[in-house]
Amino acid sequence: MVRERSSHWNQKCRCLLLGLTVILILGAVVVFAAVILAGRRDPPAELPQWKGRGSTANLEEIILGRCFIYTRIVNPELRKDCLKIWETFKNAFVSKNPCNITEQDYQPLMELAAHPIQCNKTLLWSKTNELAHKYTKVQGNLLTLEDTLLGYMADGLTWCGSPSSSETNYQSCPHWRECANNPVSIYWKMASKTFAEAVCGVVHVMLNGSINHAFGNSSIFGSVEVHHLNPKKVHLMKIWVMHNIGEQPSDSCSGSSIKELKSIIEGKNITFSCEDDHRAVQLIQCVGQPEEPACRVCRTEF
Ligand code: JS2
Predict the structure, then answer these.
(1) Which residue segments constitute the domains of the chain, with CATH numbers given?
(2) Are 152 and 68 a contacting pair, CB within 8 Å?
(3) Does the Cβ of 188 fall within 6 Å of ligand 1?
């Protein structure tokens, strides 16, 4: 009886050991197969390496923050949903080829973020970014695109996405030389077009007389804004050609490039005027160079 029981147990132990061995072997095979398959699987899709710098870090926080600052402090009577504006901004470029962004991608954002602008109070500019904004900050009565919500939110930022990811690409973005239809260039083209279409009454323009051609038809001003001014709304374009104080001008109101601009504007039935070195703007330049002859304010001796 006892012998029978022990042989029964021995048999049971043998079966148990056999079962455990089979399970271990099967487990080893499964692990081995998983390792092989994992090795064969495509590596995670690497984001393409572009020549331009990646998206600005904390892009969402910056865009959201600037939107709230603009709609709560700069222009408090503006009612805009900044969370929706961020989502619409992001949807324009994420998961898309950053060399194939279209104007339609940004159309929902342009409509969402657009707001009315006052007539006779706008300043367009070309190759005079720093002076134009120094002037409008002091003068306080003219608005550039960068003083509107669309311009204020995005100025100085970089952003792009990738077809293989639903996230913003912070590693690299296409340099504008790599492709023209990148997210940043198309944004500014659309924002400038939207702004130009809204301009009304007298529009002021600040151009650079210290470069060979103060007006360039390939610039955003020359290729987008000039052509989207509505002659039914804009009746006069006042040009200021500003040259660097203390230097000889390279271009002026009498130059060929301004003549080209004049014919385009008059061809749209908009009246055109041009002034070299508008005095109020020149005084802003003088703040940095008070000793220049042009900056001597004539004093009446008593
Ligand atoms: C890339 C940017 C930024 O009339 C002006 C403005 O309304 C502007 O938006 O468009 C005109 C200036 O463009 P333009 O004539 O090509 O002159 P520019 O001196 O070469 O200025 C180019 C940049 C204009 C658009 N833009 N582009 N990244 O952060 C940025 N900020 C602005 N305003």
Answers:
(1) 52-295 (1.20.82.10)
(2) no
(3) yes
